[in-house]
Amino acid sequence: MGKAQGRQRSDADTRERLLRVAAELFAANGYHATGMKELEKATGLGRSSLYYQFSSKEEMLFEIVTRYLRELIDYGNDLMSRDMGAEERLRLLSRGVMRTIARDLPELTVCFREVHAIGESRRGELMDLHRRYEQVWTDVLEVGVRDGVFRTSSAVAVKALLGMHHYSYLWFRPDGPRSPEEVADAFVDLFLNGLLQRPLT
């Protein structure tokens, strides 16, 4: 590895460490309550080093919030491109979301809780990513309806699935008794089967 490549790798590692620490601080204390001084202390980096990586605290927040949306959109679109049954695709999407939440809980806590702190200059791009992410869930249900497996792909159904998964950041613990996959399967089972032992008459 040459000097330039080594420097790029070092910069990338520093950037990742900074984002991780920022996410942990934002999740624990809130975005607005966390200043550059707290980030300097937690990372051991000077102010100039922080600004070398990110132009502002909001840029850090935007990167934390959007990178997981992009990752999940790519994951969902990959599932849509593969030949599989509707239920399997829904389960895999659910498991992917729960694994991401479990793996990067501070980042996803910030992603779900601090989205309102993104300024107007970046709000449009963020909202577009949210729409694209929600559309992945809609597409999964619509294909299931088309194939005669699911009964509905309504906006209410999509919002219900999103709510079940996203609010798990409030209670899910990676070291808890249930794995992300088990929680995901429980969500899908509940969604597919409902609570009643017999259909409504």
UniProtKB/TrEMBL annotation:
Stretch forming the signal peptide: none
Alphabetized PROSITE patterns for the sequence: HTH_TETR_2
GO molecular function ontology, one term from the record: transcription cis-regulatory region binding
Pfam families given in the database record: TetR_C_24 (PF17932), TetR_N (PF00440)
Protein name per UniProt: TetR/AcrR family transcriptional regulator
UniProt keyword list: DNA-binding, Repressor, Transcription, Transcription regulation
DNA-binding region residue numbers: 35-54
Ranges of residues in domain HTH tetR-type: 12-72
Record keyword DNA-binding present: yes
Classification via InterPro entries: Homeodomain-like_sf, HTH-type_TetR-like_transc_reg, HTH_TetR, KstR2_TetR_C, Tet_transcr_reg_TetR-rel_C_sf
